[in-house]
Amino acid sequence: MTHTDFNQLLSSINGLTPQQMRRVIREMEIRLATAGKHSASAKAAKPDAGETAYDVASRAGLIGCIQGTPRSPTDLSTNEKHMEGFGHD
What we know:
This protein is mostly helical. The protein has four helices and no strands.
């Protein structure tokens, strides 16, 4: 996960209502507990030094589970403003 990806994820999280935030937290706790049960026997308790936050979240099934706010775009590739200069040197 790049620094930009991480900042976009944080921005999405910051746009959540308190109720949505509690729901995300509950879901993360459940998925992390489940992921911990599956990986505890396969891995040491200490995470791999090369493992990123993206790796952990992906293994827990959290990537793509946060929906945007009502006004946020669902697909930036359909917005011409976000695609300006894409593919140009």
